[in-house]
Amino acid sequence: MIPAIVFIFGLMIGSFVNVCIYRLPKKESVVLPASHCPLCKNPVQFYDNIPIISFLILRGKCRSCRGTISKQYPLVELIHATGYLFLFYRFGLSVEMVIYALFFSSLVVITFIDLAHQIIPDRITLPGIPLCLLLASTLLPLGPMQAVIGCLVGGGFFYLIAILSVVLLKKEGMGGGDIKLIAMVGALLGWEKVLLTIFFASLLGSVIGLSLILLRVVGRRDPIPFGPFLAVGAMTALFFGDDLLNRYFYLS
Asked: Is the pTM of this model over 0.85?
């Protein structure tokens, strides 16, 4: 029953994550007012706010105005619950799982906001950096030294890229949101895994970016948000980083 409970809890938190995704770019409170239809502004009743199930029962329509509800809502809830389930199987019911679940939730919010608006909210990353440093230094086995080094390596590397892009290419090559995000990732995962995060994100971003250009979905000069790739890279490093690093050092 525990995996089922974790999955349901992930769905519930995923519903709140949807609120954050919708309201943070608008600089609105994520607490008040209560959930309401973005079209007619009528409050959403509790029986219409059950993750995924309510969307299916209402057939993707608002009960009051019959306006279309974005499929993003059940998608985010499903992704979020699945992520919590994977974290449970990887770390069990532990303090580590709780911390990484909070980290995963923040990455989901960042991913969907960056995809829609091409911004990474400071309301997540700015408090996230000192919080990750604190958690990694006290409750995780990483330790304070590795946390600080990870934060400096991640943020410093991206900041250097941003400076070189401006000086050499005369254009912005790395956004400030990406710099703060990778600093937050490094603070929680350490310098080794933040380098893995950058590697995975760059590889995935190159493959998907080139594919979109070849398919003429985007142009060569169209900006592609990098935050989602960093989020995927960070979770990949979290789940598989230890095994990859151990194999690398064993082979070398």
From this structure: yes
